[in-house]
């Protein structure tokens, strides 16, 4: 699944993975870990952002378990983030939930939000992405194309079977 997510951002430079990277990963990435490991998605976001060069305008913040994510889906988010007076863009599902780990952000705004949350909490360990979103203005994007949603994540064996069926 990680390979598919990385393929969706094939033109990103650099591509950063926070967490273990398989030795046979077919694409080059920079890797890091949040400290201490297991600190959650916001701590992982901070660790990843530390490797993003200052000149990078946009950052895709993505879960690693999105096997149906495509470059087209990322382009929609990026174009929305570029044109909207917001700091980023995420998908909103049919039930109205923001898919917070499938988004594209203005890098400077994401860094600032992480630092503001760190100041408010004293530490990022265990911070939720919802807490982080309190410091960001986000455009919500609906996926109107046929087929499965690009944010579909695989947390269970049933999810994986569903994704494999959709991918056929």
UniProtKB/TrEMBL annotation:
Database matches in InterPro entries: MobA-like_NTP_Trfase, Nucleotide-diphossugar_trans
Gene3D superfamilies: Spore Coat Polysaccharide Biosynthesis Protein SpsA, Chain A
SUPFAM superfamilies per UniProt: Nucleotide-diphospho-sugar transferases
Signal peptide annotation: none
One Pfam family per UniProt: NTP_transf_3
Start and end residues of each MobA-like NTP transferase domain: 1-122
Name of the featured protein: MobA-like NTP transferase domain-containing protein
